[in-house]
Amino acid sequence: MTSGLRRSALADIARFPEDFSELYRGAGYWTEETFAEFTANRSARFADRIAVVGPDATGARRQLTYRDLDESAARIATGLGCLGVRAGDRVVLQLPNIVEYTEVLFAVFRLGALPVFALPAHRASEIGYFCRFADAAAYIVAAEHGGFDYRTLAREVTGALENPPAVVVAGDSGEFVSLASLREQEPAAVAGVHAESVAFLQLSGGTTGTPKLIPRTHADYLYSVRESARICGVDEDTRMLVVLPAAHNFPMSSPGILGVLHAGGTVVLAPDPSPDTAFALIEGERITMASLVPPLALAWLSARARSPHDLSSLEVLQVGGAKFPAEAAKRVRPELGCTLQQVFGMAEGLVNYTRLEDDEDTIVHTQGRPISPHDEIRVLDDAGEPVPFGTAGHLLTRGPYTIRGYYDAPEHNSTAFTADGFYRTGDIVRITEHGYIVVEGRAKDQINRGGEKIAAEEVENHLIAHPAVLDAAVVSMPDQYLGERTCAFVVTEGETPKTLALKAFLRDRGLAAYKIPDKVRFVDAFPVTGVGKISRNELRRALTAALQN
Ligand code: OOB
Question: Which pTM was predicted?
Fold first, then answer.
């Protein structure tokens, strides 16, 4: 391994100004606990309780007690150390919802190394970029999942890198290192890391040509995890079904896997997101809580009537990641027999919850209120002035678990954050008289495809790489099921390619399937705004009009 040549640790990034750090420490929000010691601490308290249940890489059901989880993580940490992974190194994790995900996650943490949370849907374009940009020391995948062979992807990605990461595979590892072999090592000690240093890099939904990485610290993230668990009533009796991809911020920490493990409950990983699988698990595992994006919540609502399963153990259903329409929200309690909790969050930090004890009107019609009394919220007009109370405007935020800057992105940071450290979320919101947030829209060039975020510019750059494409603009179009889908407007020169060929071109460039435009429209030119920029509003209006005809 060549880890000596890798970029040094990231201890010096993501700093909060000292006066704020003092405030958050003084309020008891930031403590000294780190993710390196997380499973050791929980194992001491909850040793024989079941921490995680789910399929393993071979599809067999496996369960781990808190002691098992800590022990496995400690052994795998030694194995990763033997491959050259050191404290501060980055490790790209791309694992589906399998039990090994939790073992590997805490192994990386135990070493003081930093997970980079890729999604199973990512392909060579995204994974190659994460490995290069974060200078990853290791890349960890499952052999295959959902009919896709990740070893092929690993071959493609590592073959193109000058300083490739060590590849570790859960399941049949082929020529790569098998995760099982790492589990045979002696347990590693817990690394001594500073609680206010960066713990991992999360992915931003993004608005720019290249994905942005979000540096979260142990102290800031653990604060949000502890408080989320408290707000959501998570305790030792919680049995949470994880249906969404485990590495996403919502199922990871709101309160998610980490919140449940913090409190001594049980995480149950769903092998696929279908209502049939989920309903059988709710009955069989006596699930008390689950979190979904709106399209899945709609699928549960429509499948409920014809399902024979007993869902009576389900107490709370969280829905977030995209706007959940009030008409659907209303149906949750009567049809699924549980309390709805709306969650409006972002991997950059701020998370809002409706509270379990809120009245039905608040639960149905708002996206909740912030976790922390120290979450600062500003709602501004286009000129940057505060809007009159109750009026919609741009949401900006600053607080004890919201980042002050993306990883290695000084230029983008200068516009994504104000001089006094507020993050410009790109969301348009209004605040109710009770201080709850209602999401009214979005001002950022991002498409929210049922909770999956797509940066318009990233897809446009891939389209423009096609020899026949002169220019491209990717916008959202309304969709009954997903909320939004993507449409690419394309200006070509010479022979216009077929839509299918253009989509295949994007796939061949290694772009994740969810980013491939749902629709392609060839046009002669784009409408422009007064200052000569492409008018995305005009494009969206044209699409909406066309869809209504
Ligand atoms: C969650 O995180 P990200 O980073 O994938 O996406 C954040 C963006 C927000 O800025 C907003 O545009 C949108 O997703 N969003 C919602 C929403 N929840 C997220 N828009 C309307 N209504 C909602 N309830 O998506 C995320 C992170 C932690 C917890 C929950 C969601």
Answer: 0.97
